Amino acid sequence: MAKLYQDLDQTPAVKMRAKVVPMSSIVKFLLLVGGSLALIAISRIPGKDRRSSLRESNAYSRDTSEASYFSEQVTRAKAELNQVTGPIGISKGEGNIKGEKIEKVAPAVTQPKPAPIPVQMNCAAPPYVILGQPTSNSISLRFLSDYATTIFVSWALEGGAGSPKKTDLFKLVPSEPSSLITLTNLELSTRYVYQVWFQNSFDCDVYATENFFFHTQRYFDEDFTFAVIADTHFEDPGAYEEDIFFSTRAHMIKAAHSSPGFDFFVDLGDTFMGNKFEPPSNIAFQLYENAFKQYSPIARSAPIFLVNGNHDGELGAFIPKSTKGASLSEIEASFPVVYARLRNKYFVNPKSGGFFSANTEITYPSVGELRNYYSWSWGNSLFVVLDPYWYTLTHVTESPWEWTLGKTQYMWLASILQNMPATLKFVFIHQYAGGVYGTSRGYDGGGDESFAQYFEWGGKDPMTGLDGFATNRPGWNHGPIHQMFTRYRVSVVFRGHDHLFHVGELDGVIYNTLPKPSVGDHGNAVSSFTERGYKDDQVSMTSGHTEVQVTKLGATVTLRSSSENSILHQYTVSAAPYPM
Question: Is the sign of the CA dihedral 294, 295, 300, 301 positive or negative?
Fold first, then answer.
């Protein structure tokens, strides 16, 4: 862990390519049509030949056939940048950007965060950025930089139609995630190209990143692709190999930046690993800062949706109980609340309202909305993220019946499945609310589709084979979770937790366990298939990421290898004949 608790420099694998804007008096920003935002120096450049400078700046362009000028010159941008003396608010500008409303809350009682370790200035090092909360007409960005970087964002329709837009300037605090920047007034079912323009110091020139992309919500009958990964286990010895993850990530970066790319990706949890590492609360932020930097090269062109995993530490069983005398400050300082606060501070899980439906409970003032379970529609598909960890209030030592979504989440799930019409429905959860039993792993929550029959998930008592749901969940009147999935035609349940690949079907519902993207020899990560609730001949120990191509007829699910991006496994699922 010594490596993790040091300030991370940008490595070549993480660093975004950037190009410098020389400070001359007649330099202009150009939007290059055909999906390329680039900058070209078109006038006097001290000490350089004009033609060679054009060639250098065009080296980052994909298409230089047409151009449309931004109205401002770089000299003016330089002057504006140099007037910024500290963190500033986010202006609404032309009505295309808005800042996230931050409510004041009582601070949690924790140790003070240590001062950032000074980082040697690199003028060309761009800030890290991730995308989140894509909707039919907006998308949110969050930034992180090692420097007091001043930035603005420019964006336009891919292909160059219409005029480019840009945000006002704002400044990043070193090693602190920015508040959300939300681009609004976007067009439905449209791919956009954007760049981040940045200056890391008053002594630095202005740089611009390469082109990044995002897509707004798809039409109902439109094809699209999304990706899924599970159990990255950042910096976890024996369960994380950096070169393997970088290889997986490189394939995902290429796919995300290609056209049409994938519209977003879902991380199935066990990402931050707070429950395993148990760092002091004042340096726990480094787990989230590291994950932000590692995921940024993908998430800058594919919004990320996070699912809680057991090792991420947001476990209700570890929260001090007010009924047992715990004060609010003690509760706020507990690790589950600290981790939830950091997740919301660094990443961009959806808030409820409008496009997204999500958990609206505000139990912990410093966290606000937990954003731990949520749903959204995209094209012909419904996406549902679930979380059993906040609501399982014991350490699950007596019975898998202790695993639970909690009644509020359960009732919300029933409402979403019943009232959000779709021909394909995808559910994402790290593990069952129930799962494997009777092995040396105890009540681990994993297992193949056969374990979806039992406990809260399937309702049966495995010892008697009889229905135990009504007895163990009185008043839960929609039946077991799996029964809801069959009733409302859930297509695929994607799960992690077990560090292997398996596909099985139960009552028309496909259960797909996904492998890690970050370990070459999975034999070191999984001791026994049987202990985890699988048959040896029905699993694959491989590493990679999963891509799901959605059409109006159905979906093709493809597991791609971390080494060569080759197809390891592939299956299809048919869309329902009509939305329900």
Answer: positive
